[in-house]
Amino acid sequence: MPEDNSFRRHVAVLFVDISGFTRLVESVPPEEVYQAVRPVLDELSQVVQRHGGEIQQVLGDGFMAVFGLHASGGDEVGSPVRAALATLRLSARLPVHAGVECGEVLVTPSWEPGRFAVWGRVVNIGKRLCDLAAAGELQVGPMAFGRVAEQINAAAPARVTLKGITDAIVVHRVVGGQ
After folding, report:
1. Are residues 62 and 45 in contact, defined by beta-carbon separation less than 8 angstroms?
2. pLDDT classification of 111: cutoffs 50, 70, 90
3. Mind spelling out the 3-state secondary structure of 103-121?
4. Which of 52, 59, 109, 117 has the fewest CB atoms within 10 Å distance of its CB?
5. Considering the entire predicted model, what is its pTM?
């Protein structure tokens, strides 16, 4: 059973990863990796915060952000999509790829130093969409696309099977921060 201070909330999740990170790690000393990656992640984190998101975790070459965690302002999906598109436009130094999906999650306290954890299918789909995206791309899941279709210029939808996800889903690809 979840702890007493856990709750369900409809949120959007954004995953952003640096493209070619493994190649970078394999080609230069760790100090150079850090010098290349740190300013990019700092800049991307600032974009997320400006759009009302909260960084839930940072994992070396990328992060997961959550939008709409504490209050529903009515733009929980538009904000992460705009943040993702802005990250694609910013990533001149190191290209990034991203995934966005929305849905209901369980929000619980986290282990230190994290402030919160989110659990649910939407988190898995968001991560798999990010993994699916090529450098300079955003993959938008079906729930998120249903809420922001008129705000983005997406390619024709594709039905894909994502690793670990039971049913194929329809995804929409946006290229280059359009």
Report:
1. no
2. confident
3. EEEEEECCCCCCCCEEECH
4. 59
5. 0.83
